[in-house]
Amino acid sequence: MKHAVIFTAIFMTVGLPAASTVALGDSNDESAIRQRLELYVEAFNTNQAEAITSFWAIDGVSVAEVSGERTQGRDALQQEFAAFFSENSGARLTGDVDNVRMVRPDVAEVEGRTTLFIGDVEPVQSSFTAVLVKEGDEWLISSSHEHSLPQPATPYDALKELEWLIGTWQDQADDAQVVTSVRWSPNQVFLIRSFHAQFDESDAVQGTQVVGWDPLAQQIRTWTFNSDGSFGQGTVSRHDDQWMLKMTHILSDGRVAAATKVMNRVDENTLSVETIGATIDGEPVPSSEAVTVIRTDAPTVSESETSR
What we know:
Layout: H1 5-8, H2 27-44, H3 49-53, E1 56-64, E2 70-72, H4 74-87, E3 92-104, E4 107-117, E5 124-135, E6 138-147, H5 155-159, E7 167-171, E8 176-184, E9 190-199, E10 205-214, E11 219-226, E12 231-239, E13 242-250, E14 256-267, E15 270-280, E16 283-284, E17 291-297, H6 301-305
Parallel strand pairs: 1-6
Antiparallel strand pairs: 1-2, 3-4, 4-5, 5-6, 7-8, 7-17, 8-9, 9-10, 10-11, 11-12, 12-13, 13-14, 14-15, 15-16, 15-17
């Protein structure tokens, strides 16, 4: 993708909880920066090139370190944004700000991670370092450098953001009894989910889901095998404070089903799961309401600590 830096490297979803530090100045400086960046996110997600570039300094510079591409100046940036949105209508950004450091009262350095969503293609993840300068009462982007996310040192490092799933859970549904157990595999290289589902007036379904890190594609992948003979695979990605599982299944009768599951962590012991965009052989399937899932026990030592 041409010069993805100007789309993915600028502090998306700054409203998410994130670690931060302030070396100089005070908390009001960081608050003003975060509020400014929230407005930037809103501008990007409306796909308005002119509105977005108003957040950049006149001589702002955007650099993609992998490709070496460099765009300098507000006018050049606006042309890049306009061309990108013309080809990728509806593009959306999310991410985390990991650190805000006040270099001087009028200069701040921001570090974080971003994800770019375009249609049905796999999200593009990046990390960034950006410098903001204060001109009058506004913080403007002076420079941004985008780089590839560092590859996790171990599969555990890649999956640890999902470690909170370890334990036993039960769906709060009227038409089914579904119990799920999540545990680490030996050496903590995969998360393994086992489930048992009993639906009204039908046979029970059991299954196993494996979640792991793909070092070649540099993304989290998942595979599912069910007792009715169906099986599937997909990808797992974070979108704001949601986790999205894009899945394709081969049903026991040979039909192909596809759907996206959206998982929201409500609190330590509650999550909600919603299925959207479901199809069977390309034909849309009516959506169902989100299901609340409750933790029924806390993780045990053997589940969360084995082989660490």
